[in-house]
Design goal:
Order of helices and strands of chain A: EHHEEEEEEH
Number of domains of chain A: 1
Largest interface: A-D, 22 and 22 residues
Number of strands of chain A: 7
Shape of chain A: elongated
Structural class of chain A: alpha+beta
Strand order of the largest sheet of chain A: 1-4-5-6-3
CATH architecture of chain A: Roll
Oligomer: homotetramer
CATH topology of chain A: Thiol Ester Dehydrase, Chain A
Helix content of chain A: 25-40%
CATH superfamily of chain A: Hotdog Thioesterase
CATH class of chain A: Alpha Beta
Distance between the termini of chain A: 7 Å
Largest sheet of chain A: 5 strands, antiparallel
């Protein structure tokens, strides 16, 4: 499954190079992951409320070209389940037909209280595995 | 008492106008308030841990001139106690001898659990009142 | 004319009080102003490219209640023309039927090169004046 | 050469997990790189003014543990020159003696006007190569 989502470059996220600042991609990618989960029927908010956290454990972004203010970024995202406690989101970011960036963001499922690794809830795990195919 | 503090304009906080973005001032002002409290012997972190929160209830910023990347902003801050649960920080922001902005930020003391108004701790209140003079 | 727009609270914009950080409202308000102009047929991007900048000259936000992660903020915005070079956006921010914040943001029209005050382009000025009614 | 620098976790950079948000590390790392260059006698600001840009071309961060509000992050950074147009900053981030994160950030030297690859200025290149040893 490939999840598609669009976000527009915000003025406050540009820098004096007149491009989207590289750190802002990391925030946008988070919005995209959350919308990707929502499209699969899962609310990250509900997940946290039920005692799970999914902090980022690893992040890699390759920047190919700059993005400009007000341009619409198109994200295509695939999920990969690494284990019962780890998953990766692979995203490609385009503006029209230009590839702007690619990213891999790995998350670890932990317990909201003790912050120890915690097997993801069964329904989420199953849905992610299906989406991984 | 006037508290003085300096912060350098970060690259990530510039925008494509090639100036410090107006929202970033609000973050810088928060750093300054926290350092102002620290200079009076109070840790905002310890305050939160002891059950108080000081959220911003009102914010006013007047922007006079733009600030540029890598410039050093000099903040001069005065505290004013409005009541046992309200205080205001008045700041003037300069780059060298140019006035860049002025700000008034009002905070309300609330309980960390119920989020109800809560009289500030006695030692903090007394110190703020002394500093207000 | 009242412009309506919705934005969802981003995870990266929450703070350890578990509420939308007060500085993030300022960024959201900017997105809203730009969409308000777009709804009137004006692109802020095109405006900048034609030699105008609209930096914020004054900002006031009153925070009534906190907003939480993933909540949808509803912005209702009215424009007021102060002069040929100054305008104010008045916004009310709600989550469902709770008033979260109100804001007034004043912008000044300046020349993109010299950064001197510059009368707004005639069509924009006329449209804003009509919308002000 | 190992460059050392400290930054305190800002309140506005925490999230509702009550940890420093993962995107904020990326901004802190940029401050550290700029201070690393400054410690070697180079101003990134002056570099831009003389017609060079150093955008990030690749970014990798591994998050080991969370950092909390008001904690002081200690960055140890080494520079590696990949070519006449590419360099990498390797950083380790600690809070006291706990390793919080490691990061590799690759920059590409480009021309400020055409955004084409451009050999770094001779003095910078030489200083970076010496520091790489």
């Amino acid at each position: 499954m490939v999840h598609k989502y669009e976000l527009r470059v915000r003025y406050s996220d540009t820098d004096q190079m007149q491009r989207l600042h590289h750190a802002a991609y990391v925030e946008y990618l988070e919005v995209v992951r959350i919308e990707c989960l929502r499209s699969m029927g899962f609310s990250y908010d509900a997940l946290e409320k039920s005692g799970y956290l999914l902090p980022v454990s690893k992040l890699q972004v390759k920047y190919k070209q700059g993005a400009r203010y007000d341009e619409v970024l198109s994200f295509e995202t695939r999920v990969e389940v690494l284990s019962e406690i780890r998953l990766v989101f692979h995203s490609a970011v385009q503006v029209e037909d230009r590839l702007i960036a690619t990213a891999e963001v790995e998350l670890a499922s932990i317990d909201a209280n003790g912050h120890r690794p915690r097997r993801m809830p069964e329904p989420l795990l199953r849905a992610l595995e299906e989406a991984s195919v």
